[in-house]
Amino acid sequence: MKQRIFNLLYIGATALAVANLASCDKTGGFQDPSFSRMFMPNSALKATTDATTATLSWGGSLYNDTAANKIYYVLQLASDAAFTSIVRTDTTTALNKKYTDADLAVKKDYYPQVKVLGVNGAGDSQWLKGNKFSILGENLFITPSGGDIQYYTAILRWRHQDGLTKVTITNNGASVDSLISADTLFLRNLTPKTTYTAELFKGATSKGTMTFTTKDAGMFTKIIDPSASLSTEITNASSGAVLGLMDGTYDLGAGSSGFAVTGKNITIASVSGASTNVTILNADFILKGAGAGIKLSGLTLSGPAKGYVVDIAADATGVGDITLENCNIVFPSGGFAIVRANRGATTMGTLTITDCVGIGLGLNDNYGIAMMDKIKFAAVVIKNSTFSGFKRNIVSAPTTLAGWAAPITIDKCTFNYFGGGSKAAVADCGANNLTLTIKNTILANTPLNLETVLAAAIVSSTNTPSLSKVFYFNCNTGGATSGPLTWPTGAAATTDISWTSTTTDFTLPAASSLRTAGTDGGCVGDPRWAK
Length: 531
Description:
The protein has 531 residues and is mainly beta. The strands form 7 sheets. Strands 15, 16, 19, 22, 25, 28, 29, 31, 32, 34, 35, 37, 39 and 40 form a 14-stranded parallel beta sheet that branches. A hairpin with a 2-residue loop joins strand 10 and strand 11. The longest helix has 21 residues, at 2-22. Keywords: Signal.
C-alpha cells in the first residue's frame, strides 16, 4: 500500500515538473501554464498627477525582455469604468507613460488598463486595471480685486504664459470667445447682478476657470451727492437701506465719539465702485441698540484720531453682520482698531473684511484689526486684503465664553509690520472653541518698533489652528532677548521678499515662487500684489 501511494506521488510530481518545463520558452521566459497568454504586469497600475501632467506606471511582465523577444505594453484610457468608451490607446516598451494637458482634457476622469502583447505564439495577457485619475489643471487666473468687477464691466487678469489664445465667457449656456494678446481682458456691456464663467485657453487646452458676479445696479435705495449731509441721510434711513454715494468727499463730523447707527442695518457704498473716488472723513460708526449692522463698500474710510471704523456700543444687542469690502482704510492721526467689539457681552453675525487695504494704519493702541473679545460672533472672515502698521494682532478673542463655537478664516492676505502689547502677534483665541484657518497668506516684520509679542504667533488652547501655504518673513518677539516666533504646522519661512517696516508696495518679484505657491495654484498674499 505504501509503495502504491509513493508511485502515485512520484507520477504527480513528474507531471507537474513536465508542465513547468513546458511553460518555459527557449529563452527561459515564463508563459501562462495554459500556453495561451502572457503574464500580466506584475504590480499595480498607478497614476501620479499634478496641474499639467499625469504619469502612469506599472511593473514589468515576468517574461524575459530580450532583444529577440521585446516586451510591448498596451495602455488604454477610457471615459468609463466599464471601458465601453476608449479614449486613447498607446503601445510602449517602457514601464510608464506620461501624458500632458495637451494630450488629455484637464479635470476629467480617465480609467486606465494595461496588458502585455503576446510573443512567440502566446496570446496577450489579461488587462491590469488601475484607479481613475485626472490632470488637475492649471489656473492662471488672478483673483479679482474689489474694484475689478462692476455693474456693467469686469477686468480679468492672469499670470503670463506664452501661447495663451483666448478667454471664453459663458452665461446661461451661451458662450463668447475673446481673442487675447495681453494678460488682461476688459469686458464691457455685461448685465448687472449676473454670474459669468471665464475659461482661459492655450489652443484647445484649458489654463484656468473663474466665476464672477457683476454688481446689482438697482441696489441703491437712495443716491447721495457730496452736497448732502451724510449724517442726516444715515439718521433718516430705514433699516435695510442702501445709500449710494456719488464721487466726492463726505464728512461725518463724528470725532472720536463715533457716529451712531441705532437699531438698524444699513449699507453705504460708492456708486462707481471705486474706493479712490469716494472718501468719508471721520468715518467712525458706532452700532447701538438691537440688531444694528453695517456694510461699507467701495469707499476710502478716513478714521478719526483714537477712533475706529466700526465700534459696537456697550448697550448693543443682537448685532447684525459687519462687512467692509473694497475699502481703503486710513487713520491720518492714528487710530485704535478697524473693528472694536469688546465693550459688552452680546451676540453678532459675521464680520467680513474683503478686498480692503490699510497701509501704514497707525493703529497704536492695544486693539488691532479686529478686537472681537467678549462677543459671540458667528464668524470672522478676512480675505484678499492688505494691512500694515498696527499694534496687538489681527484677531483677538481671549476671554473664554461658554456654549459658543465659531470659525475664523484668513485667506490670501498680506500683513506687514504689526504686533505689540506683549500679545500673540497673529491671533489670540484663548481657550474659546474657535476654529482658526489661515491659508495663502504672507506675514512679515513683527513686532512694531519698541514693542514685544509672545513667542507663539497664535494662541489657541482648545483647537489646533489649521495653516496651509502660510509664509512668514522676519517675524520676531522684539525686546532685549528677541527671538523668532514659533508657528503651528503649515507655516514656512520665505526669503522671496525683503520688506521693511516702511514698505508700501508689496508687489511680489516677477520670478518669486510665491506667485504660484497658493492652494489654488495662484499667488499667496493679497492677489493685488501679483498682477
